Amino acid sequence: MSSALTAIARQVRRSLNINTRKWGRPQTFAVFEFQCDQELGEEAHIVLDDQSVSALWPDAQGAGAVELSVDRRQLDQHSAA
Description:
By secondary structure, this protein is an alpha+beta fold. Helices cover about 25% and strands about 30% of the residues. It has one domain. Strands 1-4-3-2 form a 4-stranded antiparallel β-sheet. The protein is extended, with a radius of gyration of 17 Å.
């Protein structure tokens, strides 16, 4: 979420008296959608480890999405190059 949208969301939460809790540092994710000839099943597959989170989200129409956590510092280094 961009900083402008984050600021707007914060204002909305404050005006509605909605408190939030921080459970950890913010994370950045890359999401890729795809079409597939293989049966992906009906359940999401989520992998958690000490450094990352990855997920496969199947779709009933033979499509799916892969979600991968991205180290924001590495992303910033690559975009600056």
